[in-house]
Amino acid sequence: MYKVFFNDSSIVIASEMKKSSNNNISDRIDFGSYSAVNQIIYDIEHADKSSEYLIYNPDIFQLWNYFRRRFVEIPAAGGLVRNDAGSFLFIKRLGVWDLPKGKIEKNETQASAAVREVEEECGFSGLQIVRQLESTFHIYRSPYLNYPDNLVLKETNWFLMNYSGNEIPVPQKDENIEEARWFALSEFDQVLANTYLSLRDFFSKTLSIV
Description:
The chain is α/β, with parallel strands linked by helices. The chain is built from five helices and twelve strands. Strand 1 and strand 2 form a beta hairpin. The chain starts with a strand and ends with a helix. The mean pLDDT is 93.
């Protein structure tokens, strides 16, 4: 199963139809037409409330590859950084708490891109990668591409990192980052109240295993 976030809604891609919530809209996709995907995109962009959509086909791998081809893909990488006190590093960009991340550059590995982005956005070094975590996926419209073919599917490859230094995080102002700070687990309610749906889902699956 894959879950893709778009605005405040989500699109679940699965091999079968499952029992769904009241606001879930399901559709089986037969390869050869993007009409169902296009309809979901339209519905999300014109909805006044969030919904969860389910599209399914027994061949989930072919379905996933088929779905991805509808979008311009941009790979990204970022870090869930933990210090020796057990706190985690967050950035506030455009008023919303987020994790440091960014686009993977040409000839750059996912891991090296994740470390570089954390270093650039938070102003310190000495990070140690522990392991790779589950990716997140979200869709957005790029202002640099021509409408209506400006839908981007971004996969962010996340890495758990340790930091044992004592440098104070410095937000990268030219990337619209207003603040970079550590949050203890007991303070996570502050983050979850003002972050993206995709990250709330990520934390719900990740924090128990890190």
